[in-house]
Amino acid sequence: MGSQGGFGQSKEFLDLVKSIGEARSKSEEDRIVLREIETLKRRINEPDIPKRKMKEYIIRLVYIEMLGHDASFGYIHAVKMTHDDSLLLKRTGYLAVTLFLNEDHDLIILIVNTIQKDLKSDNYLVVSAALNACCKLINEETIPAVIQQVVELLGHPKEGVRKKAVMALHSFHQRSPSSVNHLISNFRKRLSDNDPGVMGATLFPLYDLITIDVNSYKDLVASFVNILKQVAERRLPKTYDYHQTPAPFIQIKLLKILSLLGSGDKKSSEQMYTVIGDIMRKSDTSSNIGNAILYECICCISSIQPSPKLLETAADAIANFLKSDSHNLKYMGIDALGRLIRISPDIAEQHQLAVIDCLEDPDDTLKRKTFELLYKMTKSSNVEVIVDRMIDYMISINDNHYKTETASRCVELAEQFAPSNHWFIQTMNKVFQHAGDLVNPKVAHNLMRLIAEGFGEDDDTADSQLRLSAVESYLKIVDEPKLPSAFLQVICWVLGEYGTADGKYSASYISGKLCDVAEAHSSDDIVKGYAVTALMKVYCFEKAAGRKMSLLPECQSLLDELSASHSSDLQQRAYEFRAVLDLDVNAIENIMPLDASCEDIEIDKSLSFLNDYVQKSFEQGAEPYIPENERSGTLNISSIRNHNSYEHSTHSLRFEAYDVPKPVVPTKLPPAVAYPTDLVPVTVNVTEPSYQPSSVQPTWPLVPVSDAGSGSGSTELKLRLDGVQKKWGKPTYSSGASSSTSNFESHTTMDNGARQPDTVMSKSLPRESKQSHAEVSEEKQKLAASLFGGATSRSERKQSGGAAGHSKVSRTTNHGEDKVRPATVTVTTAVQPPPPDLLDLGESAGDTSSYSSTVDPFQQLEGLLDLNQDNAAATSNAPDLMSSLYSDADTNGSLNQNPNPMNGSVNPSKKTASLTKGPSLKDALDKDALVRQMGVNPTSQNPNLFSDLLG
Amino acid sequence: MGIRFVLMVNKQGQTRLAQYYEYLTLEERRTLEGEIVRKCLARNEQQCSFVEHRTYKIVYRRYASLFFLVGVDNEENELAILEFIHLLVETMDRHFGNVCELDIMFHLEKAHFMLEEMVMNGCVVETSKANILAPIQLMDKTS
What residue stretches are annotated with the Clathrin/coatomer adaptor adaptin-like N-terminal domain (chain A) (predicted)? Predict the structure, then answer.
């Protein structure tokens, strides 16, 4: 060990760590790190730095990067350190390199050679270190350089090496499946490795492989079931136990694999029923890890071919999760419920009140999970309640990511299950108002189409009512500030198309509103475009109806302004409007037919009406037209652009990359309603009411509206549609940065100081509410009935049933608490005496006492984790494991000369596990003294540095 | 992929250990850590130990002054990750003896080595404390 300070580290390093540890703020920490960067830049390039010193510099570089600063000036030294002969230095070098570099960094090429050499080393720890590095640093190009050696290491005598070789191969498979495809049989082989660690590791690549191709692995079902059975029956070495549960992580992974293999496969599933049932029966519901396995069982049961008996067990387990006081278990319960209701939809009913409790919980995580569940169980009878709740939630959150998700779910449910037009319009208004810029632009198109087409019934009055209610609601909303652009576009379009249709609102009133919109959103060209086109429509309809209408002065000035706009689109619209003003009624009726957005516009692709003209030109000696892509010479841009959508150009080379396959958008539509699934229909015969009307209106002489020509895929139309699409596609999404900061602000109100009273309050509240359940829950029951009840006639019965169920629930919960509490108390008292060994999550004695008095369920679980036994079990195993380890080490060289200190340090803790958990109390005291000597002491600025993590 | 990162952060939001199993730039890491820490530290102990953030699910657990935050993807079993954290702390405790924040700071590389033994490619590959610690103890002896 070094002589400069404790732990073999220099005073300088200790001082650095100390100052970082005591930094009071991020800016102070930054100052320290910046100073450190300056120091290191000078020092690290000095000649002849002792290796140990260099290792310390490397760790300091790691600190710099960890604290968010660039340490690239020192990367090369970390790379150099991987060449070192000393195992510790080599591994430190590898560690630093894996932390600093990604697999495509230029320096990696300097390491590959070292890795190759180290993979051949006869010191297995060197091989292990190199394999670790392989997992992170070897990219697709360098895989061939090492793969042969890695495959050979799959047969290494040391199980640790075999395990890492499996994982290295796994990482190659993740990066480039094709380069290891011929080797995947190795994973199957290693599944029968006699070391459980190696077997456990193969489960990860196998899981990935099975996800890709389930059918090739059906033959392994029996093996997996058998392994799971053995694990559950405690056939693995005790060292794999975690808190008395046998190899829980392996069990969980196996269950995940089984759920893939059993999905939709009766024969495979039947093989699994027994073992899953056994595991569920045996699982320890008082520990987190037991519940983790139980949860995984439920996931598996809901994925494989259903077994009524297992479903019942799963339902019971879910009930226990939901009844628990622990939020974590409730969360798992809600998630599991969401999985199980796909198979047995009725199960949700018995938990309705628990679900509503979770929905109303202040914990956002739980709430969000519950919304996910509600989303899965929405049907036409409860859509109104659920969507209303979701919208309220959507309005209340600031996080754009989840706002978007919630908004699109609301839209999806509303489109799917809307009970009435009016409700649908209202719902969409709310969604657009609060998250208009976040939802998919397609949603806006769909809404406009729906308003134009109605719900598809042949009932004109219903359609016009729908339109009227839309117009009315928009007129109410339109003056509100800060409406999202997408929503304003919809509003303008609908007001233009239907604002005056009913005769309820005068043209000048609507025009006034539209002018207001254009003025209020003067920076939004798209909205202005919509507004001016809407104005044009209002004017045209008015004139066509034979009413005299003079242009409003504000409308006139808007036109003047737009005629000089920088946007050519706006200019064109303004000029078109001007041109239309001069036309007579007849022409106007033709170019702006009333309520014709749903009429088919047929476009004569072959432009046959020009035949006469072409013929005449030919006669006058004009050259015939040769399509651009048939002309000699290079292709030009427009023909390349056409490649994507047009078959006729397939004979020429493709210059563009193929499109990324788009996921199929599920179009869950009620049969009565025909929504467009595409943003812009490619076939011309379908009218798209939602794109810019001006681009369809035949103001261009070349595209007559009612030309009877046939054909689809007109280039001309496509190009124009592209333009429209681009408009919709403009970045309407706002960046998440601003909202996340505001999110932070809202959260900071709950500062640490407030936590304690908070806990006490929320702890006492549920109990009260349980007692006075009869009065309080009336509202909840109503909610429950509307959420879970089917038809109204049935809801009465269910409501009472639910209440009865709940009172039973609360009774059993109390009973459960009674059972649990004494257990916790005994654990606490039993463990309490040795002061440093409490499972103390709080920072002070005050915390601890309040913890025991409030009986925090989360900590209850903690208290039940029996550390003592685990340690005793593990340590009792330690000697023989160590000896085997050392014998190996001896054969591998003189790595180990003195095994005694460790055994000595383990032994004292063997019998008195409750007193010390570490090597020894003495060591800890020594350490403490040493650190104090260095000037770091608990009374210094940050006493937390000293608090035992395990309490 | 499973585990996508492991973070140890103290109550003041200062990072004490960071290991990512997918590459993020320095800037991305800094932003992500800031956002996550703010979210998790604002929560009380009654609330779930899980937080959703962007495409991550964060499973966190507090030990004295130190928060252990593990970012996982959607497929992961949250309760199991919670216990993985505990196993990590127990392992460090066995090695350092009454492990505290300072131990991790002074022996950052060792804490990393333990994590390297336990997690590869974002998968929990080793849960036996003896197996995790054996190489580290051997290295201690030879150096």
Answer: 39-582
Residue B82, by phi and psi: left (phi above 0), alpha (psi -120 to 50) or beta? alpha
Pairing of strands B50-53, B119-120: unpaired
- Distance between CA A400 and CA A683 in Å, rounded? 35
What pLDDT score does A745 carry?
A: 41
Give the integer Cα–Cα distance in Å for B25 and A69: 11
Cβ count within 10 A of residue B25: 9
Distance of CA A35 to the CA centre of its chain: 38
User: Whole-angstrom Cα distance, residue B31 to residue B36?
Assistant: 9
User: At residue A940, does pLDDT exceed 80?
Assistant: no
Q: Which pLDDT tens digit goes with each residue over A556-584?
A: 888 888 888 888 999 999 998 888 888 88
Give me the residue from A87, A759, A947 closest to B45, CB to CB: A759
Residues 6+ apart with CB under 8 A from A855: A763, A821, A824
Q: Distance between CA A909 and CA A918 in Å, rounded?
A: 7
Distance CA A528, CA A562 (A): 9
Q: Decide: A397 and A801 in contact? Cβ < 8 Å.
A: no
Dist. CA A355–CA A335, nearest whole Å: 11
With an 8 Å Cβ cutoff, are A170 and B121 in contact?
yes
* Distance between CA atoms of residues A686 and A684, nearest Å: 5
Task: Compute the distance between CA of residue B106 and CA of residue A819 in angstroms, rounded to an integer.
Answer: 44
Residues 122-141 of A with CB under 8 A from B: 125, 128, 132, 135
Q: How far apart are CA A608 and CA A709, in angstroms?
A: 7
* E strand segments, chain B: 3-10, 15-20, 50-53, 56-63, 66-72, 119-120, 123-124
The whole-model pTM stands at 0.69
Nearest CA to CA, how far is B70 from chain A (Å)?
15
Closest CA to A108 of A175, A50, A208, A184: A175
Give residue-wise pLDDT tens across range A22-38.
888 889 999 999 999 99
From chain B, the residues in CB contact with A920 under 8 A are: 97
CA distances from A824 to A766, A831, A853 (A): 20, 11, 12
And the tokens for A137? 């640093």
By C-alpha distance, the chain A residue nearest B143 is A88
Q: What angle do CA A187, A192, A193 make, to 5 degrees?
A: 90
What mean pLDDT comes out for the span A737-761? 41
Contacts of B11 in chain A (CB under 8 A): 752, 944
The tokens of A342 are what? 């796909």
Residue in chain B lying closest to A894 (CA): B142
Place of tokens 């069982």: A297
What's the average model confidence in pLDDT over A639-656? 52
Is this prediction's ipTM beyond 0.95?
Answer: yes
Q: Taking a C-beta distance cutoff of 8 angstroms, is the pair A521, A528 a contact? A: yes
Contact A57, A77 (CB under 8 A): yes
Tens-digit pLDDT profile for residues B10-56: 988 899 999 999 999 999 999 999 999 999 988 988 899 999 988 89
CB A518 within 8 A of CB A527: yes
Q: Give, as one character, the DSSP assignment of residue A848.
A: H
In chain B, residues with a C-beta closer than 8 Å to the C-beta of A913 are none
Do B87 and A932 meet the contact criterion of CB atoms below 8 Å apart? no
Structure tokens at A509: 């009133």
Tokens of B73: 């993807």
As a three-state string, the secondary structure of A3-61 is CCCHHHCCHHHHHHHHHHHHCCCHHHHHHHHHHHHHHHHHHCCCCCCCHHHHHHHHHHH
Q: Can you give the pLDDT at residue A637?
A: 52
8 A C-beta contact, residue A465 and residue A421: yes
Contact B95, B133 (CB under 8 A): yes
